[in-house]
Amino acid sequence: GQGSQIKKLRAGMRSGTQARRSRARGASWQLALALVGALAASALAGCGSPARDSGSHVIAGGVSTGIYYSYGGALADSLRDDGFDITVAATGGSVDNLLRVGRGEAILGFAQADAAADAISGVGAFDVPLHIEGVARVYDEYVQVVVPADSPAEAILDLAGLRVSVGEVNSGVTVIADRVLRAAGVEQGDFVSAKLGLEDSVDALARGEIDAFFWVGGVPTPGIAALSETTPVKILPIQPETVEKVNSGHAGVYRLSDFPLGTYGTTEPVETMTIPNYLVTSADAPEDVVAELTRTLFESRTAIARTVPAAALLDRRQAIFTSPLPLHDGAARYYVQSRK
Hints:
Structural class: alpha/beta
Oligomer: single chain
Strand content: 15-25%
Number of strands: 10
Distance between the termini: 18 Å
Largest sheet: 10 strands, mixed
Shape: globular
Number of helices: 13
């Protein structure tokens, strides 16, 4: 429960901080460390607002037509109001974001739970383990297998023999698409594979150059919503037994859920797969900085939700559950203090 989790956070903050501080911090975090100094100087001066620093920071978002990018952009706006020099970067998605955070090229990044689990274990798309920790579980994403409304395909198995975009290289979409297809009995050689990002997938489907594409994100995803206004689409179901097979070998992070009726003009109930989505940072990111980032994330939730509906799903009671990622000490500090 949340109460026991908070107790673990308090204990973990005491034991984890000493161990974390003993690790050598890379040069890529010098700008962030400068911000910590600025925050301390501001506090000594009696200033109650967050300090401003001369360094620039990046949030690793996603494709420009996806929710990661929209959410990251709105969060960056709020953080700039709080004194941070920060921008959002368009990226390939979860895997790309995790790699950027791991290299110190981004202070925050959005990532799916399965990709994050692979990252800290050094498996799948990751050659070595990344020192990544959680900031918050922000919302759950839907696996969206999009086909034209008049497509004869009615199930994942029907994708055999078709032209299917499985997502951009270094994206979490490719990871999930491969797992879903294999679990449903569709092997790589059974279909014509294209590795396109969301925008290119949308354009290719509209032009009839592909027959289907995979996407993993919150709903409604802006790019797919725009497509549905000119090209009627439907979402293929992912059956319970397929979700069970995917879960059997991949940390059990996937869930079965009903796709929100009416999204993209859907008129029939459809079951699909969902996965938690996390905001992550480097384990070496300064504690004070991460605490401030987390505070702004929650305090700006209502404002961000006006343009990014998925932000309304951010819940402090659920945000601490970022398994298998440990919470960063800075995030843990915010959650403990926010309960006082």
